[in-house]
């Protein structure tokens, strides 16, 4: 059983572990290097922890949480994050500076969706 608890327990950057990006239901992971690089940059700018609340999602889990059919979470290009002790709007402004392709502002649930989509930039608020 101990071996199962170590699944994806791999440090992939100074402040990030692969397990943080794993799908909660199946533990699979897909993570684009560009997304990781931008999250590392964000962590360095903030000088505080960035919590990954949703990374990779398998199709079944994405459907369960109400994700869109073509979600970038399904292909490792997106992460939802929270950061303590900073306003969501200030965090949004910093993420704009870092130039994430997609930024979703979820005020009621207190998180940002960040992605590195290859298409034109997109911004939305819910």
Notes on the protein architecture:
The chain is built from 4 helices and 7 strands. It is α+β, with helices and mostly antiparallel strands and 126 residues long. It has a single domain, classed as 2-Layer Sandwich (Muramoyl-pentapeptide Carboxypeptidase, domain 2). The mean pLDDT is 94.
Please specify the SSE layout and strand pairing:
Layout: H1 2-5, E1 11-13, E2 16-17, H2 33-46, E3 51-54, H3 59-64, E4 78-82, H4 88-98, E5 102-106, E6 111-115, E7 122-125
Main sheet properties: 5 strands, mixed
Radius of gyration, rounded?
A: 14 Å
Shape: globular
- Per the CATH scheme, the topology name is Muramoyl-pentapeptide Carboxypeptidase, domain 2
Q: Give the domain tally.
A: 1
- What is the CATH class designation? Alpha Beta
Report how far the terminal alpha carbons are from each other: 40 Å
Could you tell me the strand content as a percent range? 15-25%
Put simply, the count of helices is 4
What string, H for helix and E for strand, traces the elements in order? HEEHEHEHEEE
Arrangement of strands in the largest sheet: 3-4-6-5-7
DSSP strand tally:
7
Describe what is shown at a glance.
Helices cover 28% and strands 22% of the residues. The protein has helices at 2-5, 33-46, 59-64, 88-98; strands at residues 11-13, 16-17, 51-54, 78-82, 102-106, 111-115, 122-125. The protein has a 5-stranded mixed β-sheet, with helices on one face. A two-stranded antiparallel ribbon has the order 1-2.
């Amino acid at each position: 059983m101990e071996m199962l608890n170590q699944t994806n327990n791999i440090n992939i950057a100074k402040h990030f572990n692969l397990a943080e990006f794993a799908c909660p239901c199946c533990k699979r992971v897909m993570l684009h290097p560009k997304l990781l690089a931008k999250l590392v940059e964000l962590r360095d700018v903030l000088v505080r922890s960035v919590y990954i609340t949703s990374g990779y999602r398998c199709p079944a889990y994405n459907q369960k949480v109400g994700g869109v059919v073509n979600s970038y979470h399904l292909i490792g290009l997106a992460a939802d994050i929270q950061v303590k002790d900073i306003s969501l709007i200030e965090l949004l402004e910093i993420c704009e500076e870092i130039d994430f392709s997609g930024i979703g502002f979820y005020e009621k649930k207190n998180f940002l969706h960040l992605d590195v989509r290859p298409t034109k930039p997109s911004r939305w608020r819910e």
